[in-house]
Amino acid sequence: MAIFPPQTRIWWNEPVAKAELVWIAVAFLWGLFMFFMMIYWHIYGKQNLSPVVGRIDPAVFEQRTSEFAEKFKVREEGNLGIPVAKPTAGGDAYMLARTFEWWPVLELEKGKSYKLHLSALDVQHGFSLQPINMNIQVHPGLEHIITLTPTEVGTFGVICNEYCGLGHHVMTGRIYVVEPGQGR
Amino acid sequence: MTDAAIPANVLGTLAAKFRTCPATGLKVDLAAERLIKANAVAAVVFLMIGGIFGLLVALTRWPAVHLLSSDMFYLVLTAHGLDVLLLWIIFFEIAILYFASAIILSSRIAAPRWGWVAFALMIIGGVMTNIAVLQGDSSVMFTSYPPLKAQPHFYLGLILFAVGALIGCFIFLGTLVIAKEERTYEGSIPLVTFGALTACIIAVFTIASGAIILIPTFLWSVGYISHIDTLTYKLVWWGMGHSSQQINVSAHVAIWYLIGAVTVGAKPLSEKVSRGAFLLYIFFLQLASAHHLLVEPGLSSEWKIVNTSYMMYLAVLGSMVHGMTVPGSIEAAQRKNGYTHGVFEWLRKAPWGNPAFAGMFLSLVMFGFLGGISGVILGTEQLNIMMHNTIYVPGHFHATVVTGTTLAFMAVTYLVVPLIFQRQIIWPKLARLQPYLFGLGAAGISVFMMGAGTLGVARRHWDITFPASDVMLPHGYPPMASLMMGLNGLSAILAATGGALYIAITVGSILFGKKVDASNAAASLGPMPKKIVRDAVTKYGDAGTWHLPGTYVLVALFFTTFVLYYFVNWKYLSELWPMQ
Amino acid sequence: MADEPRTESALPLERIPFMQRLLDNPFMLLFIGVVVPTVVYILWGVMEITQIPLAK
Ligand code: HEM
Ligand SMILES: [Cu+2]
Ligand SMILES: [Cu+2]
Prior knowledge:
Number of helices of chain C: 2
Strand content of chain C: under 5%
Low-confidence stretches of chain A: none
Number of helices of chain A: 2
CATH superfamily of one domain in chain A: Cupredoxins -  blue copper proteins
Order of helices and strands of chain A: HEHEEEEEEEEEEE
Largest sheet of chain C: none
Oligomer: heterotrimer
Low-confidence stretches of chain C: 1-9
Bound molecules: protoporphyrin IX containing FE, copper (II) ion
Radius of gyration of chain C: 22 Å
Distance between the termini of chain C: 61 Å
């Protein structure tokens, strides 16, 4: 029994049954497969987290984001007038996280790639794009540049899914995706 | 009680007193027994407190009920994570370590006084952190990611608790040394003790990581350090946060073997294979701490892939091996016991009326199918993009740590109460029901949270309806998400009922249960298979033993589910917006 | 364990295989179990974090 010491003095040399060996082999090969699947996806897959990251002073990031929003503003939204920025297709886009908002709203064109710069100003936040359900952690002091290509037209919510304080649940943002060449 | 003092030691302090267990014949060190009792009772108390918090959280997350205010919700959620994940589990694990060393090896426990120091530190620490949370200024979740800042005594309490637990680990190791020197057993330690050793080793790394990161964080909270790097904190913190879950895995696998042995007479099919599987845990299981850092900026994919895969899934291999050898050893024993008809007679006629066995088998199946599979999916670097920080994550870990670990710990309680507390279980009929009730509820919370998570619902989130009155840019989840969260609330009520029953039975039995003595010792362990042949498996690798068709079917079913679910998730991933 | 005293009556005891001796040695296991994650997970990870470049 498992609560008594092994019965034989040398148990390491006991034979292992064939069924057990088969299962060990299957499980081992499946593990290898799953391991190489991740590598395969880095080479051939289209959804991989960008490795482009740099340390940045939150104040600098805030500054750059405001300049971006200023430059590309197409309209304002909400009672507080959040700017909606429509960056040039293929260009840079900025979105910052702070308690408790994602700022600014972005308007992107379907099928175009954008370099999305993400960072936080205060604590960690969770960039959660809905209903696509893509989730990326956002740290203060780290600028993460992600190349993103929207594939469908619509209104997408950005929620915060890292607990960031007592207003965590009111922290929302938005991304609009429109047909190329059109606005809303 | 047969208190037989061994010849008084020259050094009076070393003299240990023993009694002989009427059911197993093991020599029980009374000092170890007292420590086990204290730690187990503390564990149950914190489970009760934490369980109530869990119910409140679930009822708040049920949109139609939405019980607590937002401030209270975050406070209670912090307390829930803390009380169940750290306090309940680790107190119980310390009890298991003492049991698996001193009791199973019939040895005296090393340094019982230090055992009490450890216990006191853990209690003081646990209470201190709870106070910090309940005071309301430390709703930072039990992960306490800086720069969110809690009160200093929040961190201090955790540090004291960790130091206490570390002392407990060294007492376990010390007891192994004593048992070996005093030759209380022959040859190698029993498999259950080896499983506990695995847990202890992982615990040492876990607690060390915790101390390394919490001490500077404490200093930061009192103002001696100006800055804590958010990413480094997270890296080291999860060395504790996730590895502690690996302590659970090792501990509850050990318990599966223990309960299999006691209830149906199961014996490991192969010591080599089972221990080899634990060895893979010792080597690689702790690397999985990277599961929490897969969508983090600033760590390379190489680091992520090597760590998240536990070095090419070698630790998963260990789990898959246990997944076969545990049911396999039960099937072998039951076939030896005479249940040889068809593929599943051994399982049908297993002692399902014994809560220890029922809880253990449910724990095994649900840990594997719900927790294990979802864990590997979550831990796949790219698939994590679809799930990170959604409520899929708590769904997954309630399958591991609640239907797996907690249920296994509950199951073993039905043996610990008669063996250690020497009391019979009161209300045997209700006790029979308890594992099913709790298991069903816990499976419900796991599955429905996972379901809501695939629809994007965030974890740790007070209000998923985003009313336009509160938020500037409203967002709506699909109605299915609210349904899932409602079903989660209903399951939570079931689980809480099962949990309350467990606590009532345990506490009631300890206080009012009939005394266990030689006359009723065997019966006190609950219903056993009608026929039982002790020492069920006679030889390793013996062809007769290895006719285990039922286990093969279970394993094949598991593997098929695993593979299908794995590929379904890659398919979903391929439909996301391309991102580099 | 490997060099247990031999009883006169029995044949010389067979040497215990390396793997079994490893598995019977809690402190060796403790050493491995702490070093592997410390190196592969913590040290490697911290190294990467310290090497994050400054943003342009
Ligand atoms: C009556 C039983 C239980 C119920 C109804 C329950 C329910 C829940 C719910 C609804 C959440 C919140 C998820 C969220 O909003 O993010 C949660 C979180 C959690 N639960 Fe439980 N739970 C129970 C028992 C347990 C047990 C026994 C454990 C551990 C052994 C556990 C560990 C946790 C942890 C670690 C969290 C995460 C806290 C955080 O995100 O900071 N739960 N639970
Ligand atoms: Cu946030
Ligand atoms: Cu948040």
